[in-house]
């Protein structure tokens, strides 16, 4: 009996050891070199229309350039996200460190466009080399956004939250091929301006006037961008760099006060000043924007203000 119990105990220890070994197995990830090549292509094609071919080198260069591969949350940290274009999808490998433990999260995903949605369909998920049930992992994913939904074994993302119009997405010859429709990016659309009655005092008399203002959604968005530019400003070095961001911020603030404010005139001024900057300064401004604003906001700013 004692031998039997000892055998079972040894078996459990070996089994736990195997699981631990599998879950902590490491991947030898290539070193990515920071590059804004993909960002420039996306900016051009997403606005003017066309096709962008994304290979693993471009994709990981952009991740490194945008500095989104290093994050900390709830005592854990990730560093060195790696993405690889697979035969029909995208492989994502994320090193995660929690206290003294280190593990790699691996996900092989099929991605495609379906109607007005971008579909992410995980084919396999692992911790290290230890496979996990996809359905179980997706059930544990917290709600991220009202436009991102878990539906069975796939993630559905509304295309309206993507700052450019992806018409087609496919994997071809080891590259992710994105086709874009031409899209004019503006700070706001005419439908975003609403009219309202407002009482004002003129020479001790109350007069009701019709005034223009932005919808709450656009107003909140412009305010958020303006506030985020304070952080962008803090990441810049030269007076010329800071002057450009200050002009953008003051333009947004004046626009918030008056939707008829001629912001395009000041955008042309920013474009002229930006063109005269050395490449190092241009790179620093773009890097600061991408680090402190979301992608949609940055795409609008670089389009309108010519950066």
Please give the domain count. 2
- Report the sheet with the most strands, covering strand number, pairing sense and barrel closure: 9 strands, antiparallel
What structural category characterises the helix and strand content?
Answer: alpha+beta
Any low-confidence stretches, pLDDT <50, length ≥5?
Answer: 6-23
What is the distance, rounded to the nearest whole angstrom, between the alpha carbons of the first and last residues? Answer: 77 Å
Oligomer: single chain
Q: Count helical runs.
A: 9
Number of strands: 14
Helix content bin: 40-55%
Which shape, going by the Cα principal axes?
globular
Radius of gyration over C-alpha positions, nearest whole angstrom = 25 Å
The succession of helices and strands, N to C, reads HHEHEEEEEEEHEEEEEEHHHHH
Averaged pLDDT: 76
Beta-strand content estimate: 25-35%
